[in-house]
């Protein structure tokens, strides 16, 4: 039941550079790299969890790249592997280093001050075998207070069959847990922390921290249980006159338990604080007391066959009486021929005289005296097969004893009758009994001290469980076969002269059980106060729970002083409960939760079949682990459903706290492996069938641009992604670096780290990816084609509008943008282009109104309708209203269009205002012609800029002359100077020149520019003050010669608008009117 933990003191690393350091919690396994980084002469250094290794990853190199390493390989016939000698060892060197490294994991080390003031480190060697190192500690932890103080009462209340069921369930639960624990413990060395270490390294820091703290609470409350048991033995059986509060009222005994329990706790805490070595030295004495008491019990059972003990029980009718206040079980007795009344008469009558008025029940029923222990051959086992459950306050009665029922007696019944002090039922007895089978982790906690832990832990633990299970089951049968039922149900032995019931069965004297159980409970309490602080210290030193870090420190010799103080405080809570029966179910919950996760850890590791899962113990199976896990969970709710819920809530709160606030640890746990398997399974399932429209949501690939410092240039792009996604679906934030991966490897890693940092800052949940490519265009193409995996690929690309495309020295930026548009279209992916992205609201802003305007020009799958709805789910856009605009041509019935659109929006379950804008055919304005002319002239200029510098200057001058001076006709005479230009303009000539230039402009460009200008006028008029405008994005021209014109069209379409999101569908329906 109590739990022993390896004591791992800590010393600061000496500044002298001697390299000597002690273990800090030993919660982190040593990697081979750490072994080979140590000097040959100094192999005692063990790196703890507080060494600054945040990720808890093992280092990959085995050797330091120093001169000694190189010299080792000189003149070796391994020249083929010379390039790898700095990072990987030869096998012969590996085996040599491992054979010399004998102190990988420290055992129980006690640092105490010697008489001359110098510190001595007394560390046990690794020479403990199975019997001493595992079997006896488990035996001592399992057998204890419940066996001596409550097992007889459980047998009497539940009956032999019910008690057998309770013992069998609990023992099978611990046996299955021991099998799982043996598999985990033999899959590597288990340092200090025992169950916490196994669970945390198998299920991850969240589960490990939650269950570790529950295990710590269970161990602490176990200390309360043992202290309450110690005080119960002291005040009832050893020194009953030492009570502070007198009387038989319900508060007297609990108050006495609180006072003496607090004093006992303070004394034990002082002993633990002074030195744990005294507790360890007394462990053998405590174990001897347990074994001696059990042997005395078996000896007493054998003696009942020959001569039953002379202990009698007095019954009034069928009611059992307390016989501590009277000697004679009779109403009257004859002394010297004189009939006088007995002491018992005085309890039921108003005077000592024979004519006194007595209680009706006392008058009508006779007093009988029966043997408390009829013996093994008496046949009493038949009467004790079935249980006798009763409510609190009911008298303890013999079933087959005749009696005359009457009204309740008017005398003070608490003085003479025996009552049930609590309501008794099967599930309560399970919760009270279960602490008697805990303590199976004692062997795994001593793994550092064992000669062969991988052999000793399974054999010793399972053998101890089988031994104690035999003891418990045999005691259940023997108690039921030897002891009278009313005596078994007498919890404190008041009917047998205030002797423990198991004590009157023991031989040669009840004091063997009294003294043995007293020292056993005292020792178990000391060991709980020793082990619990060290478990808390191990958790604190792992750094997974920030607010517990202070408890990782202690005295200079490593003793967990602060953890001990917290343990004493929590233990005092259990003592203030002042009831062994009330505390037992509490610690049962915590231990059962710990055992549940041990089984879960083994089952997960077995099912995942990870390469590192290679336990030496072979006799395990995942079905056994699941059976043990199910049995633990069932026992939790059987014992107490509300305690079970409280324990689960506590563990859940700790889990979520560690998940959100705890340190990030990578321990190669099974939950991560389970997540990978689940992800693989889900991805394969997604590939089996195409995605339905109802399940479509934007899976976004965000194209980010980095500045010269490799920082994200437009972080609001990530903010907008967060607002659009709200943590749902897939988000891949990517960027492209120009160059080769070999030359820009470090920059690529830095860029990816900066992307992750920006995602954290903008609360964007997803993945980051930086690609190095020979040019940006190929990098974008690679991302569009290959980002994502299987069914979890992106279906939408989000990028910022290239604001500086006009100012660029060449057309690379324009080409990259347009090629990205073309490739997303070819890949059937949607495209979102945000203009003025830096003016978009951040995640901390709240828009207090306004509208999100959708300009639905063409139907491209309904993405325009879906995006405003997704945005409105986020708190930034929640108060914005949605408006849908569509354009009616000359031949369209705008009234009918509006009705149809309203009905369509209604069927889509969207809350939006609908408006139809009429755009009739009109003449192309002069402004449109001029804008188109400037566009084509600029395009022509950019084409000519690909020529040589001299030619570019000449062409630019010619274009300039054509725009300014060529509007006039120059009279060029044959002998005139070329510098002189004669310009004579008339109104007719000017109009003719403009008409000639208009005729030279491509009519398709004019029509496109006309559409952009007219549509822009309407959009600006209606949506100038809106918070966001969503527009259909026109497709790029099929002819690449018109790329620059395409950018001009888009600029004209968005001119005068603040926040614009151009949307281009992916060629499939993304929204449906069906449920």
UniProtKB/TrEMBL annotation:
<dbReference type="InterPro" id="IPR004842">
    <property type="entry name" value="SLC12A_fam"/>
</dbReference>
<dbReference type="GO" id="GO:0015379">
    <property type="term" value="F:potassium:chloride symporter activity"/>
</dbReference>
<keyword id="KW-0597">Phosphoprotein</keyword>
<dbReference type="GO" id="GO:0006884">
    <property type="term" value="P:cell volume homeostasis"/>
</dbReference>
<feature type="region of interest" description="Disordered">
    <location>
        <begin position="1"/>
        <end position="70"/>
    </location>
</feature>
<feature type="transmembrane region" description="Helical">
    <location>
        <begin position="586"/>
        <end position="608"/>
    </location>
</feature>
<keyword id="KW-0769">Symport</keyword>
<feature type="compositionally biased region" description="Low complexity">
    <location>
        <begin position="15"/>
        <end position="27"/>
    </location>
</feature>
<feature type="transmembrane region" description="Helical">
    <location>
        <begin position="620"/>
        <end position="644"/>
    </location>
</feature>
<dbReference type="Pfam" id="PF03522">
    <property type="entry name" value="SLC12"/>
</dbReference>
<feature type="domain" description="SLC12A transporter C-terminal">
    <location>
        <begin position="715"/>
        <end position="831"/>
    </location>
</feature>
<dbReference type="InterPro" id="IPR000076">
    <property type="entry name" value="KCL_cotranspt"/>
</dbReference>
<feature type="transmembrane region" description="Helical">
    <location>
        <begin position="425"/>
        <end position="444"/>
    </location>
</feature>
<keyword id="KW-0812">Transmembrane</keyword>
<keyword id="KW-0813">Transport</keyword>
<feature type="region of interest" description="Disordered">
    <location>
        <begin position="949"/>
        <end position="979"/>
    </location>
</feature>
<dbReference type="GO" id="GO:0055064">
    <property type="term" value="P:chloride ion homeostasis"/>
</dbReference>
<feature type="transmembrane region" description="Helical">
    <location>
        <begin position="257"/>
        <end position="276"/>
    </location>
</feature>
<feature type="transmembrane region" description="Helical">
    <location>
        <begin position="225"/>
        <end position="245"/>
    </location>
</feature>
<dbReference type="Pfam" id="PF00324">
    <property type="entry name" value="AA_permease"/>
</dbReference>
<keyword id="KW-0633">Potassium transport</keyword>
<keyword id="KW-1003">Cell membrane</keyword>
<dbReference type="GO" id="GO:1990573">
    <property type="term" value="P:potassium ion import across plasma membrane"/>
</dbReference>
<feature type="transmembrane region" description="Helical">
    <location>
        <begin position="283"/>
        <end position="306"/>
    </location>
</feature>
<keyword id="KW-0325">Glycoprotein</keyword>
<dbReference type="GO" id="GO:0005886">
    <property type="term" value="C:plasma membrane"/>
</dbReference>
<keyword id="KW-0868">Chloride</keyword>
<keyword id="KW-0406">Ion transport</keyword>
<keyword id="KW-1133">Transmembrane helix</keyword>
<feature type="transmembrane region" description="Helical">
    <location>
        <begin position="501"/>
        <end position="526"/>
    </location>
</feature>
<feature type="domain" description="Amino acid permease/ SLC12A">
    <location>
        <begin position="133"/>
        <end position="306"/>
    </location>
</feature>
<feature type="transmembrane region" description="Helical">
    <location>
        <begin position="456"/>
        <end position="481"/>
    </location>
</feature>
<feature type="transmembrane region" description="Helical">
    <location>
        <begin position="562"/>
        <end position="580"/>
    </location>
</feature>
<keyword id="KW-0472">Membrane</keyword>
<dbReference type="InterPro" id="IPR004841">
    <property type="entry name" value="AA-permease/SLC12A_dom"/>
</dbReference>
<feature type="transmembrane region" description="Helical">
    <location>
        <begin position="161"/>
        <end position="184"/>
    </location>
</feature>
<feature type="transmembrane region" description="Helical">
    <location>
        <begin position="128"/>
        <end position="149"/>
    </location>
</feature>
<feature type="domain" description="Amino acid permease/ SLC12A">
    <location>
        <begin position="428"/>
        <end position="701"/>
    </location>
</feature>
<dbReference type="GO" id="GO:0007268">
    <property type="term" value="P:chemical synaptic transmission"/>
</dbReference>
<comment type="similarity">
    <text>Belongs to the SLC12A transporter family. K/Cl co-transporter subfamily.</text>
</comment>
<dbReference type="InterPro" id="IPR018491">
    <property type="entry name" value="SLC12_C"/>
</dbReference>
<protein>
    <submittedName>
        <fullName>Solute carrier family 12 member 7-like</fullName>
    </submittedName>
</protein>
């Amino acid at each position: 039941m109590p739990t022993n933990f390896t004591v791992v003191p800590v010393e600061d690393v000496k500044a002298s550079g001697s390299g000597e350091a002690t273990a800090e919690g030993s919660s982190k396994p040593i990697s081979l790299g750490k072994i080979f980084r140590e000097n040959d002469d100094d192999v005692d250094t063990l790196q703890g969890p507080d060494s600054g290794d945040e990720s808890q990853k093992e280092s990959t190199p085995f050797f330091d790249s120093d001169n000694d390493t190189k010299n080792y390989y000189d003149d070796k016939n391994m020249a083929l592997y010379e390039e790898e000698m700095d990072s990987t060892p030869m096998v012969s060197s590996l085996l040599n280093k491992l054979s010399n490294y004998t102190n990988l994991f420290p055992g129980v080390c006690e640092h105490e001050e010697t008489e001359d003031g110098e510190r001595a480190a007394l560390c046990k060697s690794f020479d403990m075998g199975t019997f001493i190192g595992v079997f006896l500690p488990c035996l001592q932890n399992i057998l204890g207070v419940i066996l001596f103080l409550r097992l007889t009462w459980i047998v009497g209340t539940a009956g032999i069959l019910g008690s057998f069921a309770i013992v069998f369930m609990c023992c099978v639960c611990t046996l299955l847990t021991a099998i799982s624990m043996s598999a985990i413990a033999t899959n590597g060395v288990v340092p200090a922390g025992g169950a916490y270490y196994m669970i945390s390294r198998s299920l991850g820091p969240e589960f490990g921290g939650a269950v570790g703290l529950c295990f710590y609470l269970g161990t602490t409350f176990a200390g309360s249980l043992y202290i309450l048991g110690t005080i119960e033995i002291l005040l009832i059986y050893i020194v009953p006159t030492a009570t502070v509060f007198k009387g038989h009222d319900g508060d007297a005994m609990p108050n006495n338990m609180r006072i003496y329990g607090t004093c006992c706790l303070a004394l034990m805490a002082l002993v633990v604080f002074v030195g744990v070595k005294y507790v360890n030295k007394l462990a053998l004495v405590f174990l001897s007391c347990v074994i001696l008491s059990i042997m005395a019990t078996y000896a007493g059972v054998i003696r009942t066959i020959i001569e039953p003990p002379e202990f009698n029980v007095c019954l009034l009718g069928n009611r059992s009486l307390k016989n501590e206040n009277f000697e004679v079980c009779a109403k009257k007795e004859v002394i010297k021929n004189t009939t006088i009344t007995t002491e018992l008469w005085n309890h039921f009558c108003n005077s000592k005289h024979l004519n006194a008025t007595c209680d009706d029940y006392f008058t009508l029923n006779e007093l009988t005296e029966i043997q408390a222990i009829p013996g093994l051959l008496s046949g009493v086992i038949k009467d004790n097969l079935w249980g006798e459950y009763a409510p609190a306050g009911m008298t303890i009665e013999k079933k087959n004893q005749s009696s005359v029922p009457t009204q309740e007696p008017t005398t003070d019944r608490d003085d003479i009758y025996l009552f049930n002090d609590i309501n008794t039922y099967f599930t309560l007895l399970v919760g009270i009994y279960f602490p008697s089978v805990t303590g199976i982790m004692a062997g795994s906690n001593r793994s550092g001290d064992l000669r062969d832990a991988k052999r000793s832990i399974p054999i010793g633990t399972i053998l101890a469980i089988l031994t104690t299970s035999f003891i418990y089951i045999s005691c259940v049968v023997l108690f039921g076969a030897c002891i009278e039922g009313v005596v078994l149900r007498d919890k404190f032995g008041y009917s047998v002269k205030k002797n423990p019931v198991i004590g009157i069965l023991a031989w040669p004297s009840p004091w063997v059980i009294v003294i043995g159980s007293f020292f056993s409970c005292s020792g178990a309490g000391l060991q709980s106060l020793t082990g619990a602080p060290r478990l808390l210290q191990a958790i604190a030193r792992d750094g997974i729970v920030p607010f517990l870090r202070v408890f990782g420190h202690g005295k200079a010799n490593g003793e967990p002083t602060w953890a001990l103080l917290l343990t004493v405080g929590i233990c005092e809570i259990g003592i203030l409960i002042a009831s062994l029966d009330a505390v037992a179910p509490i610690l049962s919950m915590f231990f059962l939760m710990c055992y549940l996760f041990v089984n879960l850890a083994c089952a997960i590791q077995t099912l995942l079949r990870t390469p590192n899962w290679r336990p030496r113990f072979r006799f395990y199976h995942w079905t056994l682990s699941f059976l043990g896990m199910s049995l633990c969970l069932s026992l939790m709710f059987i014992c107490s459903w509300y305690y079970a819920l409280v324990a689960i809530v506590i563990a859940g709160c700790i889990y979520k706290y560690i998940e959100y606030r705890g340190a990030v640890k990578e321990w190669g746990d099974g939950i991560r492996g389970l997540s990978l398997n689940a992800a693989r399974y889900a991805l394969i399932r997604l590939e089996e069938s195409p995605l339905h429209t109802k399940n479509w949501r934007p899976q976004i690939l965000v194209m980010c641009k980095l500045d010269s410092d490799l920082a994200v240039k437009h972080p609001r792009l990530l903010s907008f992604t967060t607002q659009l996604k709200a943590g749902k679906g897939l988000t891949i934030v990517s960027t492209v670096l120009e160059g080769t991966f070999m030359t820009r490897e470090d920059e690529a890693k830095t860029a990816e780290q900066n992307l992750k940092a920006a995602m954290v800052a903008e609360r964007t949940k997803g993945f980051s990816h930086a690609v190095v490519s020979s040019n940006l265009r190929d990098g974008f193409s690679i991302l569009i084609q290959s980002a994502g995996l299987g069914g979890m690929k992106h279906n939408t690309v989000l990028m910022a509008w290239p604001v500086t495309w006009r100012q660029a020295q060449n057309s690379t930026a324009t080409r990259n943008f347009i090629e990205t548009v073309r490739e997303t279209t070819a890949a059937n992916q949607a495209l979102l282009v945000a203009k003025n992205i830096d003016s978009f609201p951040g995640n901390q802003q709240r828009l207090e109104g306004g509208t999100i305007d959708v300009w639905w020009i063409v139907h491209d799958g309904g993405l325009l309708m879906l995006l405003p709805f997704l945005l409105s789910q986020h708190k930034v856009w929640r108060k914005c209203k949605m408006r849908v605009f569509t354009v009616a041509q000359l031949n369209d019935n705008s009234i009918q269009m509006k009705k149809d659109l309203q009905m369509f929006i209604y069927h889509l379950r969207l809350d939006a205002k609908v408006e139809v804008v009429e755009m009739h055919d009109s003449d192309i304005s002069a402004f449109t012609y001029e804008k188109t002319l400037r566009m084509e002239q600029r395009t022509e200029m950019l084409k000519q800029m690909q020529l040589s510098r001299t030619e570019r200057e000449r062409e630019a001058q010619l274009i300039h002359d054509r725009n300014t001076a060529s509007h006039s006709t120059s009279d060029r005479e044959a002998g005139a100077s070329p510098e002189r230009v004669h310009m004579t303009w008339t109104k007719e000539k000017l109009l003719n020149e403009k008409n000639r230039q208009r005729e030279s402009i491509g009519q398709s460009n004019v029509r496109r520019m006309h559409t952009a200008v007219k549509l822009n006028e309407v959009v600006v008029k209606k949506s100038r003050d809106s918070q966001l405008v969503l527009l259909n994005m026109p497709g790029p021209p099929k002819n690449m010669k018109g790329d620059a014109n395409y950018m001009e069209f888009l600029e004209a379409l968005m001119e005068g608008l603040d926040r614009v999101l151009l949307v281009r569908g992916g060629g499939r329906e993304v929204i449906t009117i069906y449920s």
